[in-house]
Amino acid sequence: MPKLTINGHAVEVPPGTNLIEAARRVGVEIPHYCYHPGLSIAGQCRLCMVDIEKTPRPTIACNTLAAEGMVVATETDRVKETRKSIMEFHLINHPLDCPVCDQAGECWLQIYYMEHGLYDPRMRDEKVHKPKAVPLGPHVMLDAERCILCSRCVRFCDEVTRTGELGIFDRGDHSEIGLFPGTELANKYSGNVVDICPVGALTDRDFRFAVRVWYLDSAKSVCPGCARGCNIEVHVNRRRPHHNEGRRVARLKPRFNADVNRWWICDAGRYGFAFVDDKTRLVAPARREDGAVGDATWEEAIGAVAGALRRFAPDEIGVFASPKMANEDLWALRRVLEAPGIRRVAFRVPPREPGDADTLLIRSDKNPNSHGAALLGLDGDGAAILAAARARQVKCLWVFGHDLLAGAWPEAETDAALRALPLLIFTGTNANATSERAHWVLPAAAWVEREGTYTNFEGRVQRFRQAVEPLGQALPEWDILGRVLRALGVEVGATRAERWFRELAAAVPAFAGLTYQAIGDTGAVLSAPTAGHPRSEPASRTPLQ
Amino acid sequence: MTAEKILTRNFERADSHTLTAYLETGGYTAWQKAQTLPPAAITEEVKQSNLRGLGGAGFPTGTKWSFIPKNHTGPVYLVINADEGEPGTFKDRYLLERDPHALIEGMLIAARAIRSATGFVYVRGEYVEPYRRFSTAVSEAYDAGYLGKGFDVVVHRGAGAYICGEETGLISSLEGKKGWPKLKPPFPAIKGAFGAPTIVNNVETICHVPHIITRGAGWFASLGTKTQGGTRMYSVSGRVRRPGVYEASVAITLRRLIDELADGVTGNGRLKAVVPGGASAAILRADEIDVTMDVDGLRNAGTMAGSAGVIVMDETVSIPEALMVVARFYAHESCGQCTPCRESTGWIYKMVRRIVEGRGRKDDLDTILDVARRGAGTTICAFYDGAVGPYISYIEKFRGEFEALIDGAGARVVATPASRAATAHA
């Protein structure tokens, strides 16, 4: 472990640590563009110059490994002058079009110009002109004039996705990022190049011109798109509701987690939030009688559900929980099931097409909490429940989220089961073919509208926070279920998600000792792998029959 | 001092490029001798000879060879830089065309010294005839059994980029990548072509090696100065009566080279300036040419020996126009990897062009000098430092000529399609 000194601070770092990372450990930021901890060293932006004792001139920190006894100074006059020069070089051909640039407000040219530039511009010649507003693929737009040619995007496609769509073409100040002939930037992780682009060269086609970044608020969250549970930030626009057609969720951004997703998320997850502000959202409890749909109050809806749970015999009731529900919801559901002793419960509905998967992040199980649902004892036989409905043994079915008609089960059989049911209750965020058949619809809050935890395929329990208020009258499932419990005459202490989690942690051995505080921002791994769900295997591999 | 011809001794023979001619003049006897010597002894002999790299940097050749890790077990590559692209330099072209076997023999000996089984010769793309001649010689050497017995030679053609003459840019290009210079460390001798220890030497440098082995390090060292041995080939161009390639001691003075070998200045007959070591070398005024042409001699004179491309300018040559040509070259050839070089070569070219076109501003000259100084030493390779040499020296030594253009006296419109297009919106 080499020991070195940076701006007078002594620090000891693991062998192989470069000076940018070593400086971070003592709170010193060395400005840089091309360096990214998840990519190879390029050393081409030349901004991260530092002075090293006994070295004749400033040296780039990214390609210099910390060495025993090294004395590094990042704020000498020489270094500051060099930085200022490098900033000028970066900007002489830049269009300086911040007022119309989507990156403004989170642009490292703006930030570093203010921190390290502040020179008087001397470039009075015509700038180099390059292509603008070039779509590179379905998600990414290129403005080559704003590009500082740091090559992060090129290295990302070469080294992380290994798809190699991007290159730097031409030479000198005519160099530009571009696609190799016959390719487009359509790999499953293409949106990440927008995140790692330090300037406004690569922007997000979904987000650009939607809302200015300084109007955004952010909440730490977890992607609900598959069993990986990539850590994300949810960026929401609450301050300019008239922008972007009222879409509250503006974008999702990856949040670093060394053990889950590092710096990346997939495009499916990144752009998978549209349902939150979609027209299909269920915003009020509703009742369907004789084919006519009418709004109902929560009291009426809760009363109807509790009444049904009392009226039907436990064996006449089936429940489809959802692997998209949080641990807190699933625990509350278990409490509801336990009250009358309902045993017909399942959560898996096999998809019509198997989910895609790869070795980087994407899991074939497109649910964030299958592992949690299994740990809470909800892994029953869904096909058998539907069969029982067709045989008129199950008379009341409560479906959370699923569209039973869209899965792999024969549609006609499912249809017959739903038709045979005297009572179908649906709880979910958005309408679907199943909710269209339901006699009672109870609207649920989307994951960004509430807090909770998911258990990923490796048994890591991770928190997601509330970013916006629930739409309309929607409520978190734990809240709906708590109200049902109370209507059933059961004493319910938990009135917040955290309370439900505490109850769960006290009752289920796998969660023993876990608290929201212990889970923190990066999650906590369950104490022991559960039988049938070893950590290295996806939860979804369990046969469905 | 017009020493015995060594590298160019066979150049007058019409068949000098053939194996027959090479063997008739003692060819491949040095290789026979070298095979009796331990590799370390060859390296030591080359060190003692004071042979220094003749491609541009002037690094001691034997010392470079000794950087190959001693206990390395995998492949080691010998790469010959025949990408000769430094403006004003055309010596390697003659060696490849007129004495290709000298290079092959030198490679055999060098490869033995560094324990390499494979050599690559990276030939400048525009060098069609040199490529043909050299490839034919390689075939002859295979047929005659010099190659293919423990050492193979691969001839690779470049695609027309100056930066591929920079040793790590060359390696990137050889590997099939864009010709971008690589970050150092690691240096090529540790991790070079295809990740293996690699020595990159210039054509002319390696052509000297057989003579050093045959006639001894002492003899070679005695031909030059205390710190640099031998002769070298000077490419003399511009306003001289007899432009061409001349072989002479590294200790010859620039004045003798121009006056005696190249037969004096033409144009109006009065010397104005000389670039002594290829376009990247700082310019010398007429009163600065009593310098020896060795690496240290020219370094002490504030310029560099470089590739020994000597460009002579008489009084009728416009220095601002000459700088514009040079600046355009660097703007065009910058690989674009490092920000300071990528951005400022183009910027400086625009400023110089504006001055030449009579649209200069009072502060342009100081801006150019400041930009050049600020960018110097901040990049991955030496390309930008090479550009800075002319930027600064042309302006500092001939500032009056630039100022006259800025003040409107003698402004001359240079209408190039590029300048028209670029200024249309200005």
Give an overview of the whole structure.
The complex is a heterodimer of chains A (545) and B (426). Chain A has 545 residues and is α+β, with helices and mostly antiparallel strands. Chain A has 3 domains: 3-91, Ubiquitin-like (UB roll) (Roll); 100-277, Alpha-Beta Plaits; 298-541, 3-Layer(aba) Sandwich (Rossmann fold), CATH 3.40.50.740. In chain A, 23% of the residues lie in helices and 17% in strands. Chain A has 14 helices and 23 strands. Chain A has helices at residues 19-25, 77-91, 108-117, 152-160, 192-196, 267-270, 298-311, 327-338, 370-375, 382-390, 411-420, 477-487, 497-507, 516-519, and strands at residues 3-6, 9-12, 49-52, 59-60, 71-73, 134-135, 140-142, 166-169, 176-179, 202-204, 216-222, 231-237, 249-254, 286-289, 292-295, 317-320, 344-346, 396-400, 423-428, 440-443, 452-455, 460-464, 524-525. In chain A, the strands form 6 sheets. A 7-stranded mixed sheet of chain A has the order 15-14-20-19-18-16-17, with helices on both faces. Chain A has a 5-stranded mixed sheet with strand order 2-1-5-3-4, sandwiched between helices. In chain A, strands 6-7-10 form a 3-stranded antiparallel sheet, with no helix packed on it. In chain A, helix 8 (327-338) packs parallel to helix 12 and helix 10 (382-390) packs across helix 11 (411-420). The radius of gyration of chain A is 27 Å and the shape is elongated. Chain B has 426 residues and is of the alpha/beta class. Chain B has 3 domains: 19-222, NADH-ubiquinone oxidoreductase 51kDa subunit (Rossmann fold, 3-Layer(aba) Sandwich); 231-314, Ubiquitin-like (UB roll); 320-423, de novo design (two linked rop proteins), CATH 1.20.1440.230. In chain B, 43% of the residues lie in helices and 12% in strands. In chain B, the strands form 2 sheets. Chain B has a 5-stranded mixed sheet, covered by helices on one side. In chain B, helix 7 links the parallel strand 2 (118-123) and strand 3. In chain B, helix 15 (364-375) runs antiparallel to helix 16 (383-397). The longest helix of chain B is centred in the C-terminal third of the chain and has 18 residues, at 339-356. Chain B is globular and about 70 Å long. Chain B starts with 18 loop residues before the first helix and ends with a helix. Residues 415-426 of chain B have low confidence and may be disordered. Classes of the chains: A alpha+beta (545), B alpha/beta (426). Chain A binds chain B through residues 41-47, 49, 57-58, 63, 81-82, 85-86, 88-90, 92-93, 122-126, 128, 148-149, 167-168, 170-175, and chain B through 161, 163, 178, 183, 185, 331-340, 342-347, 350-351, 354, 361, 363, 367, 371, 374-375, 377-380, 422-423, 425-426.
